[in-house]
Write a structure and sequence with these properties.
By secondary structure, the protein is mainly alpha-helical. It is about 55% helix and about 0% strand. It starts with a helix and ends in an 18-residue tail after the last helix.
Length: about 45
């Protein structure tokens, strides 16, 4: 019984992981934002 339980949960985990990786690959990349420093450094 325990072997079937572990195999089932392992398969479910692998399926969730694969779906997450597929979704992650198709997300748009966000560009790094450069912070703008004020001209007057006293601010």
């Amino acid at each position: 019984m325990a072997d079937g339980f572990l195999e089932t949960h392992q398969q479910q985990y692998e399926a969730r992981k694969e779906a997450w990786l597929r979704k992650k690959r198709h997300l748009p990349k966000t560009a790094l934002r450069v912070l703008q420093r004020p001209d007057d450094e006293a601010l």
